[in-house]
């Protein structure tokens, strides 16, 4: 009988304890337990007071003002009432214990909000490892001022990806000491263009020197589109030595030319200087891709238009192999102050990756026409049974542009192309938007 009564009393006691409010304000403690808790609290406060005095002394010695406040200081060191179970998270402990000695104060979680921590054993400051930094003079295009500006920026000691964000604006105002062979393009209005020696550029420069124009059928469509809207801006991705950039600028259009290879940019710069077109052209020394990183440039001794991106240094014997910072197409918004543009893109089979991060761009900018090289992309098809990454990404590009309202047309015949047979499309195509196309 005694055993049964004892069990009942224990159960009732447990039920009473479980039924108490979770804030702990009604937990009844014995007088002895209260005194033990208060004694522990007093000891803890004394320790914290000593640590605080050491912190203040170190701050005064270093000439650093203590801006963190008592609560922030305690967050790094508080261990108030270590056997507390529940209760309030509050640093007004003294007031609480005086008014409500039965309240259990919950331990504060460690949240480091200061730049300094104190070693509890030695009282010395624990220095956090700091990233090495350096002062860089960053060049970028300020749309508010409408020009290239500079500002000093303290950055971590690592490769800066470019400009105010990722766009690396090339300064076209510098003097060029190189001598280039420059001719007049056979277009109206005429514009100069500067060429490589034939043996260094057997395709574009040689053809321009012999014929006076490169891809005349595409240039014809290009100029027709620009003539429809004098405010149309041109985004020339893979500008090379600048034929399309220079033609658009000579027609009075503003151009953003994206070109990774510095030697190509210098040829474009020289021609723009001769033609008085510098105020129309902004050059970004970047490559547009599906990542933001550093790539090496693979060069060809006889084809300056065949520059491509590779991960590993193709010239390990070179002390300074040419490289470039890649960016997303969305990053073009860093330098864009307009809402309508024509895109010309020719980046040696990398087009399918360039559009992977472009949704923000197309939401901000209306693009009625996209002139695109397709010769290398169609080769990714392979066969019906192959499913390489390049093939899948090319199909994704086709689907993406179709969903945006574009249809592909042959740059030769201007016939509409069947998206199911993109592996047989012509070398160059023109994507026209459903609502903004000319016939």
From TrEMBL:
Gene3D superfamilies in UniProt: Vaccinia Virus protein VP39 (3.40.50.150)
Classification via InterPro entries: FkbM_mtfrase, SAM-dependent_MTase, SAM-dependent_MTases_sf
Domain annotation Methyltransferase FkbM: ranges: 236-406
Signal sequence, start to end: 1-24
Keywords: Signal
Protein name: Methyltransferase FkbM domain-containing protein
Organism, scientific name: Paralvinella palmiformis
